[in-house]
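Hello forum,

I keep getting stuck at the same step: I have a sequence, I want structure tokens, and every attempt I make locally crashes halfway through. Rather than fight my setup again tonight, could one of you with a working pipeline run this one for me? It's a single chain of 364 residues.
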Amino acid sequence: MKRTRLYSAHKTAGAKFVEFFGWEMPIEYTGILHEHMAVREKAGLFDVSHMGEIIISGNQALDFIQYLTPNDAARLDANKAQYSALITPQGTFVDDLLVYYLDEDTYLLVVNAANTDKDFQWILSHEQGFDVEVQNKSEYYTQMALQGPEAYKILKPLTQIDLEKMSSFAVERGSIEGVEAFVSRTGYTGEDGFEIYTLAPNPEKVWDAILEEGKAYGLQPIGLGARDTLRLEARLMLYGNDIDEHTTVLEAGMRWLVKFKKGDFLGREALLKQKEEGVRRKIVGFELVEKGIARPHYPVYIDDEKVSEVRSGSFSPFFQKSIGLTYLPVEHTEIGTEFSIDIRGKRTKARVVPTPFYKREENQ
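Reply #2:
Ran it on my machine without issues. Output:
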């Protein structure tokens, strides 16, 4: 299995490891519930170096990205990022990703670890006719995420970057403890925070400095377990669970991601047709009405008919109840609609609720 450059730091900290799409990654340090609430109430530091980084550069880099993705990358100013996706001609997901405008004619795509090689090949298969260069630089990058209400206070003394002026999805270059990096105000937890990218061969200096500075603020190292429950509470999609090559952008409730007026892009015609005809199913958030925990792949029933399965599901540490995401026929997606989930042979009541489950503006 592959290991990140921070593996030794995780081992020293007592992390429990799991195999995650070919990577040996920390799943937890002190317990998922404890780590989850540390991020919600104070701050957490994640190693997300398993994510993929693909550089697209050249005279037609923007044109190529506009063709590959449904969002409008032309709206990006220098040193800004946007959430987007790679989609098929059928309007379904190859992957979701972040697009960073690094400088003129150079863009960075940050893709999911499970899909890095697949995404790279997908991009290469469509580059003909565009004056671009595509490079998979994933093995060179270390990526850390500092998330939580205290993230700003922790990072501020360690860098000359003016974090206060950084808006959401802004990007700034600089150094952290003398290590060259670029920082974006992005994350995957529903909290304010920063993602830090560096090409330094020894990124432990940054990791250790952040943990040391964060001691006074209750900062904890966080594993993949809490990362999953945090993103679910914030209704942030997970490829392979909530979105995949069988779900369209519109079915996933991401109409806002699609900019039809920008011109041609892969999947445009299919999504236009679906927009005009209407979707037949739609993703919804749910909570269990009865005792139990709805896990991914558990069957979902309306009356006695199986209509779907749980896509993401877990016990919510913040709300202390079972929540999840599933796709339902569009006529059964109104808030308050009840259905059932087969949990180990027992039909358990659930109901559709508004999402995101967690919004930091309302809860802090």
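The mean pLDDT is 97. If your local run keeps crashing, start a new thread with the error log.
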